[in-house]
Amino acid sequence: MNRPPGEVPCLLMRGGTSKGAYFLASDLPADPAARDELLLRIMGSPDERQIDGLGGAHPLTSKAAVVSPSADPHADVDYLFLQVAVDRPEVTSSQNCGNILAGIGPFAVERGLVAAGEERTSVRVRMVNSGDLATATFPTPGGRVDYTGDAEISGVPGTAAPVVIEFPPGGGPLLPTGKARDEIHGTPVTCVDNGMPTVLIAASDLKVTGYETPRDLEEDPALAERLRGIRLAAGRLMGLGDVSGTTVPKLTLIAPPRDGGAVTTRTFIPVRCHTSIGVLGAASVAAGLRVEGGVGADLARLTPGDDRVRIEHPTGFLDIVSGVGPGADGLPAARRTAVVRTARKIFDGTVFARSAETAPPPAPSTGGHR
Length: 370
What we know:
alpha+beta; eight-stranded mixed barrel; 16 strands; about 15% helix; 4-oxalomesaconate tautomerase; isomerase; EC 5.3.2.8; isomerase activity
């Protein structure tokens, strides 16, 4: 079907604690610059309210997923995650998003990329941003995606069908610096990558409790400056190079749990403080807590013999199954990572991008793959 320019088939979905616009790659321009320019107009960026587009005026609701059949024999579909900035004309593919990932399997079935099973369907996903793989399993009674169910996740009202996401061990090291603990500008840190490059920092080492609200932490200029310095230095230590223009690594402040979990967290993405925690970020935190000698080893309350880790965050908790054991090089390595999320289809139809003549020009792309 030939559509006028700026009219694009779109499925708006909540994936985990995020919300985004899901597209078939074939419905978007193949040229990355043209694609990103169109997405800015679709989401209504740059504008702090995103009043003229789909975006919800927050990084967690200004996201896009681009999906296509995969040529990888180990995957059914390719998933490219794109973070659309709210107040800047910028689109980046420098990281994955595990929350938006929760909607990829249902979207693949909705768009006919994967045939639904009679009871349940598993979709193998290649995350284009990093090359990592995941398998999402969800209910499809009668061959149709069922979004209703009794699974509950913090940060989302009500309940929905569970989406079980399994992550095989990645090809990269769990500890990118080769150490359980590094020191950056006098602050002990643990640099870990179990799907999301993450830096663990004891909140007390930054003179905060780790129980503050995200807004209070964001409004602390001294803290922001220290975090910026740590992030830039950690990026180099982790082999990511100059991260001044990217959103990784994430910084997670950790403190003893308050509500029966393993640890309390406050995560920066990278400047705004997350109102919950990302799935892949939580996977990295959970694995990092199991590293002997890491900054979380003395803070976390883990149950011996139980791979389940409850990560507390500002609006509740996220449960991760995380197994860590010795790798071939003697360093800790991820063994198993799984999480239960939910997703919901909000609308399916055509989105009308604002006119290119009225949109600000996009910034230079920062979309290089990690």
